[in-house]
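Teaching assistant here, posting this on the class forum so everyone can see the example we discussed in section. The complex has two components, and the goal was to see what a joint structure prediction looks like when all of them are supplied at once.
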Amino acid sequence: MSGAITQSPRIGIIGTGAIGGFYGLMLARAGFDVHFLLRSEYAAVSDRGLQLNSAVHGALSLNPVQAYANAADMPPCDWLLVGTKTTGNVELAPTIAQVAAPDAKVVLLQNGLDVEDSLREHLPDSLHLLGGLCYICVHRSGPGVVEHQAMGRVNLGYHSGTAANDEVRRQAIVEEGAALFHQAGIDSQAMPNLHQARWHKLVWNVPYNGLSVLLGAGTTALMADESSRELIQALMAEVVQGARACGHEIAASYAEQMFTMTESLTDYWPSMYHDYLHKRPLELAAIYARPLAAARAAGCELPRMQALYQALSFIDRRNS
Amino acid sequence: MSGAITQSPRIGIIGTGAIGGFYGLMLARAGFDVHFLLRSEYAAVSDRGLQLNSAVHGALSLNPVQAYANAADMPPCDWLLVGTKTTGNVELAPTIAQVAAPDAKVVLLQNGLDVEDSLREHLPDSLHLLGGLCYICVHRSGPGVVEHQAMGRVNLGYHSGTAANDEVRRQAIVEEGAALFHQAGIDSQAMPNLHQARWHKLVWNVPYNGLSVLLGAGTTALMADESSRELIQALMAEVVQGARACGHEIAASYAEQMFTMTESLTDYWPSMYHDYLHKRPLELAAIYARPLAAARAAGCELPRMQALYQALSFIDRRNS
């Protein structure tokens, strides 16, 4: 009700897992009119609302939740935050088209390279597509319950839409998105180049997501052993090298910073580990195959990352 | 008794696991005077003998076995076949010195590079040290029971001793060793260069030993998946590259042959997997660290093998 009488945009959350749940709850508590599309957790969230146990913000809840089991029942949204797995992006297009207001901004809060590409061709031209890189440690501990261990920043970049060739308008849209998060107390930065921002994020995801599955280890164990530390650093260096080959300079100090930051985390098990555990498909195309293909097209081989990708592909197929 | 009245050499088996058990039993059944040194399986083998279930030779047994729990009780042996793990080579020197005849030939039936080096300095100068590369699929299924799936060839090379600078005598010793195996119906080749022979064997051991542990998979699963096949081939190519950097040419067709041969095996789980399963230390120094260091000293990085080594080191430490 409150959203209807303000000028603030209506926000839709597609996929209310750890990421969608966290950002949706924070935005709703900041006063935005937020609508949540759910599948398996619809009943639980309708009944008991959303619960966030945050090491940063404390224990927060949202109840009642504007929850929907069907996209057809949702009002048109100005901003759509997509927190589903990249492995389902193509199938998601009709849902997004259904709940998007005519000029809506769709933000894929996902890891990996070029995750927007496969979705774009299936979306109406009028929609703006953005990418969001979430620097956050969250996981789902039960239906509608999200555990937030650390951080929260979302870096946004414009992917495609009617503002693609209008730098001023493009920038305004991305800054509008960052402002939404700011109002919810969440750090957010407008990135001039989404592709580059995605390469930056890969510096963390490539080593930690994959090694958590391959070695059955969270960040604490991975950072406590000399061999895994060396392997992580070597993988990070390869991502930096791949980005450079693709024309995106990443400072060596950025990789060092990601490495040091991870040492300070309480034990964190990346999303890929949870996917593995629950026998969901791993996001290998987004995080490994596409960056490897992009680097190779630029004449750059990344042998450790390729080996990790091949090992994970074996594991993924056996796990399905 | 029979051995005492012939001119044939007395053979000692140090470490009667799958490798020592197989070759010792075959040599004993061929009429050689073979003495077995055992630890944990001494009682079982003294009582019930050795049993070989071979897909090649059928079901064979040896009973009674000239079995010993203490090296001090063994007669001096002319040939010593060492089938223990490389991880215990240094500690083995006093035992070998104790059971070796003055001019004995000591053969390390072990995988990996330079496994003789650490042992050599602790052995009497009079002993000849040789290396043996076993192309065989065997594993131990119980005390004194060996399962033999395929192959059996032993390639021998001279490492060090008083014949080191006498090519004719060196060659004669290696051929004498090969002849022993031939008399037991086992294929064996005298190799002019042990170091090169060890690099050849690594073409198989580097991918299959490590990946069996890393991916929890035997050869059938590894050869059935496109990604693991590519990874195996890439690792084999790195070993060939490392050998070349160290001055040992290995034909690309050799790697292809190892790959194709493995496709024809009934599911085989390499020794490193059994070590992992029984929480024994993995032979990482011999199979990974030393070849990597040798290649690096020759200016050659092997990134996939290095990554595999780092991952296995993490697993090995956690497993101990």
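For the discussion questions: Residues 194-214 of chain A form the longest helix (21 residues). The beta strands of chain A are 10-14, 33-37, 50-54, 58-62, 67-68, 77-82, 100-109, 128-142, 145-160, 188-191. Think about how each of these relates to the inputs above.
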